[in-house]
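Comment thread on ticket #2218

A.B. wrote:
> Attaching the input chain for the structure job we discussed in standup.
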Amino acid sequence: MNGEAILEARGLTKEFKGFVAVNEVDLSVRRGSIHALIGPNGAGKTTCFNLLTKFLPLTRGTIHYKGDDITAMAPADIARLGLVRSFQISAVFPNMTALENVRIALQRQHGDSFDFWRSEKVLARFDEDARRLLADVGLTEFAQTRAAELPYGRKRALEIATTLALDPEMLLLDEPMAGMTQEDIERISALIKRVAANRTVLMVEHNLSVVADLSDTITVLARGQVLAQGDYETVSRDERVVEAYIGAGHD
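C.D. wrote:
> Ran it. Output below, let me know if you need it in another format.
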């Protein structure tokens, strides 16, 4: 990890009919880091995430990725640059096996269209890489299991595998631990650590123990503004952060 910023937002603002959901947010994510965006409900985390990935248009502000201005770019074009949000390309096909799902994502990475009618022989050229990705996320034994039949935590792992199939340089994860059991949380946390070994990760996450364990840097939002930023020890001792969470009824 170094001090170079791979993603920078300046003055990120989103207004909805007079309501300011995100207000002049500055964000800088260091290359090779795991950066968490946290805050109580209504803090503007998801809106901020949607602005960064261009699923919502900005009211004002700028976004730079690897030094290039991507403020006016579409989500698909941003993904092609290597900035990939998990659900952008990881919509799992429930009636296909885990292997087939990853194979389709690999097909897209290699510039091929999603041609489901292609022969098995043609598609089989992606099998080796697909099995490697399944192994990376702990799904080797589920390769021939239909996605719809996977336990919830395993399905989330499959979504991450399909995301990784596009070989993103920066991965954005929106509440990756939501709805998981403790066993699943531990498994996906370990997976994110492995993924981050040679990538940058920005995640929105409610589970503060996960944030403490994984994050190099944390940005805390409250009422659409940056309340604090730093490592977990720094932000957890900030009286404004404590007040924001206690006041919102969070642990």
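A.B. wrote:
> Thanks. Noting for the ticket: The chain has two domains: 1-82+170-251, 87-167.
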